[in-house]
Amino acid sequence: MPPKLGWIKFAAIAVVAFVILSGALVIVGPGQRGVLLNFGAVSPNVWDEGLHFKVPVYQEVQKMDVRVQKEVTEAAAASKDLQDTHSTIAVNFNIIPEKASWVFQHIGLGYKARVVDPVTQEVVKAVTAKYTALELITMREKVRTELKEMLKDRLLAYNIAVVDVSIVDFKFSAQFTQAIENKQTAEQMALKAQRDLERIKIEAQQKVAQAQAEAEALRLQRQNVTPELIELRRIEAIQEAIRKWNGVMPSVTGGAVPFIDTKSYSGK
After folding, report:
1. How many domains would you assign to the chain?
2. Which of 54, 149, 201, 256 is packed most tightly, with the most Cβ within 10 A?
């Protein structure tokens, strides 16, 4: 065989080998699982992350994301007291890794639209119907927990695991929202009126207590007023007048001159 033909044959073999080998190597990336298809038929075997070999033409590999994903669903429902509600629910979930082939075979890649969204809407309707509109507001955490537990049970049947559920938004009709605001305003006004009444009562009680104290003090003063005390006060007043007198008799027209008997108080 001429050298030139030998090189051509070698190159052809190398190209064929490269094509075959390149088609036989499959890399399953982080957070993925490989679903093996044998002539289009789904194999129960699921490939983990890493490098794998497949038979070209005969086998294909469909990569499935098994990491935690988020789906936001809008759901309309009615409460126990027939109030319309509009919820925005965020569901964090992932495909159960060892069941990736089942999910691909029975649901396909559109599992969010085919399963997660409709099941979430149905669960929201079922849970919301158990509570009144006011309970949905005041017991929000309990409602969220019940949504999560029910979604877990429902989606597990599709080999989808629920990690967490969040109530992103929760709205009522405009009429009900206005009624809630009016009720809160009325409660605040009633509370203010009650506080004002209590303040007035306390102030009145304080005034009564003060008046009682003043009356008691006056009563005690009256009890302590004796003839001896009156006489003492009179004598003190006369002595104070004598101390302030300058020795000059007052000049009074049309009246008697007051006389002060100093001897009776001089001690002689």
Report:
1. 2
2. 54
